[in-house]
Amino acid sequence: MLIRIIITAILIASFAGCSFNIFRSSLPGEKAITPQLIAKHINFLASDSLKGRNTPSPELDSAAEYIAKEFHSIGLSPVNDSYFQKLNLCVVKLDKDNHLKISKDRSEKLFQIKEEFTPFEMTGNKETNASVIFAGYGIDAPEYNYSDYSNIDVAGKIVFVLRHEPGEEDTNSVFDGVKSTAYSNVPRKVKTAIEKGAVGVLVATDPLNHTSLTPRGFPWPSLSKTIPEDALPMNLSMDESKKIPVVHVGEEVINLLFGNVDSLKNLQSEIDASFTSQSFQFENVSVNLKTTTIVTEKPARNVVGFLEGSDPVLKNEGVVIGAHCDHVGYKKKHEPDTDYIFNGADDNASGTSGVLAIAAAFTAMKTKPKRSVMFLTFAGEEKGLLGSEAYVENPLFSLEKTVVMLNLDMIGRNHEDTLFIIGSSRSPDVAAINAEENSFIGFTLAGNEERYVGGSDHASFMKKKVPALFYHTGTHADYHKVTDHADLIDMTKAAKVSQLAFRTAWRLANENK
Amino acid sequence: MKKQLSQLVSMVLIILLIASVAVAQESFKLEYKFEKGKTFRYKDISSGKMTQEMMGKEMKMSSEGEKVIKIIVDDVSKTGDITITTSTDSMKVFSSTPMGDTTIYPTELLNKRTVVTFSNKGKILLEQVIDSIKQTGRMASMAPTEPVKFHILPEDAKAIGTIWNSLTVDTVDRMGGKVLTTSDIEYTLVGKEKKLGYDCLKISFKGKTEIEGKASVQGMELMIEGSGKINGSFYFDPKLGLVVFEDTEVDSEMTMATTGEQAMIIPITQFVKNTRTLVK
After folding, report:
1. Residue A408's domain is classified under what CATH number?
2. Chosen domain end from A245, A276, A291
3. Domains of chain B
4. Which structural domain range is residue A130 located in?
């Protein structure tokens, strides 16, 4: 009797196990995501013919054409009549004609470049003559109820600002204290100064928390004996007409303007203690500042495919699914008969192939999603997230209406069952849906929250407060090496990751709220 | 009695005068005098703050380290040249970066021996790595290139208050390239002081260093240049010929650049504080 009961229990348990598989909720479109489809895309994108898809390069252009053709054949729509979003990338060199002259009480001093002032990388190709205003830390932060511009009008003036932010080393600071906020970054200070109408910026290292006041600015190769010009990084182009001269100034300029460094220290202490603006205009001081640059354009393209939502209201909201398609190119100098191409099969032909497969899954569904879905592949990720940064600065779908960004980067290596989900703590609702959907896929989800948060294109969306998740199967010995080959990719795993991202995206594109 | 007192006072004054002249003129010949067969250990404690900048955005990092260095004195030649075997007994490194905090115990670096021969003035004459360390990944930046660095002591005897200068140029092979470091240090013999139970001479130092070099990492060319200010002091037991304690602060500004598949120029600012204590 007991034996019969045990046998019956075993049979029921076996059946229950089978029935779980039988009734597993499989979405029709999911079947479109196969290891074979992933392999087809990876084998092309990571082939030697694409020479490592450097940004910019003809080979990256070929990859972009391939992706655009796939988007078209799947049935995705172009945006603004194009599957491409043009990126204005550039390399900026410092030209020869740069000077800083300060006139005070009828005497004039010319400062030495590199020793006494150095232009920053965002400086403009301009000359300006104006009076000078001390504008504290150069911060206008309404959310912290702090502004160095509250009592001054800097329109048409040159501003003198300190680096960093009030209470830099103070854990009780109204700002973030030991970990600096975005307000402490020089580009942010320059952007604020431009918005306030300033025509030039003198930046000094804040003397209270920093012993070295060397005006390093940007270490331009032309001012260096070791750094070559081809080390200059690529940047997003800025409208040259909106740029202003921006230089880092040292102790000599501080001494001329403030009398000595201690006076500036006292001012900084007052700001830190009172948390109020101590800004003022220098009397009888004018500055003649000129910086010159040579800008070389480096055009590249993001690829975009659009699936309009079916709900008349919700279609105005969108889900973005993205991956970067660029890699780091090939070795210019190499031994004959040695591998010299950084194929980037995992980084990130795998994620790009995932996006293509997810797009195929969406269009294979019997109904369209309620919300719109934007499929994106980015260029310039390896140069500093430039493609995604350009997208969020010029979005093709309103960022306010973008409910989530799912990023796939390196999804085809390491243990078959492990997947890192990064960004869960910042987007807990999305992470919860992803975890629910994973119960149908079966990954062991892991995630070191902060470690990779800034490491890929989702970070550009997070900066703009768009909820985001990053799918990643971890780094490995072939990362950024010529050995990152397609034959090392676990195509089944990459397909499973794509299926999970698809299921999560489908839920998010159809949830009522 | 009055006359005797007067004579006594005069004598005392003369003795004091002679003594003060003698103290003022007391000079010390500074030499390393390691004793053959002996083993010494130093404990190094360091802390540092580093800021890297990319595209105008700063990334702050900090670190704390602790290690114990072992020195076995293999030989002392007739001319005073000293041959030692150095290795690291223990090492712990804590680092705090925007990517998180980590504490590591790099066991790969422990007990790796290097034989160093140096003059009794501290000039390194020969250096031979016995147990090599594969300089890849994190080891590339952590592997010690000079397990123990000695201050260059002056050739002639120095009196208290004396200042002297030392200019050293070191070339280190690093990751397929060479890194050149030039140090121009001014030393001052401050005075006598008891430290950790040893009768020491306190020597302060300050100066500047410059670094310049090129290397190659995974097909990328790597360039580094920069300069720094150094200051600190060390306590030297002239009888034992040993540094008993040392504290150093280095404030440096460097630029690291890469070419090849990734072009980058990264300004780095670093402040490092280090103490070295002779472990009994």
Report:
1. 3.40.630.10
2. A291
3. 28-279 (2.30.230)
4. 96-291
Q: Mutate one of B97, B221, B262, B264 to test the A interface: name it (highest A CB count within 10 A).
A: B262
Q: Is A404:A320 a contact under the CB 8 Å cutoff? A: yes
- From B259's Cα to the closest Cα of chain A, the distance in A is 5
Residue that finishes a domain, picked among A291, A316, A338: A291
- Smallest CA-to-CA distance from A374 within A393, A396, A390 is with A396
CB contact under 8 A, A212 and B262: no
Q: Structurally, how many domains does chain A consist of?
A: 2
Put simply, the answer to whether A120 touches B265 (Cβ < 8 Å) is no
For residue A220, give the chain B residue with the closest CA.
B265
Mean pLDDT, 10 residues at a time, chain A of 513 residues? 34 36 66 97 98 96 98 97 96 96 94 97 96 97 94 97 90 77 92 97 94 91 92 91 96 97 97 94 96 95 98 97 96 86 97 98 95 98 94 96 97 94 90 94 81 82 94 93 96 97 97 80
What pLDDT is stored for residue B21 in this prediction? 43
Interchain pair A481, B218: CB under 8 A: yes
Numbered residues of chain B with Cβ closer than 8 Å to any chain A Cβ? 54-58, 60, 98-100, 212-214, 218-219, 223-225, 229, 251, 253, 255, 257-265, 267, 269, 271
Q: What is the pLDDT of residues A153-184, one digit of tens each?
A: 999 999 999 999 998 878 888 787 677 888 99
Cβ(B226)–Cβ(B268) below 8 Å: yes
* Model pLDDT for residues A231-267, shown as the tens digit of each residue: 999 999 988 899 999 999 999 999 999 999 999 999 9
Contact residues on chain B for A481, CB-CB shorter than 8 A: 218
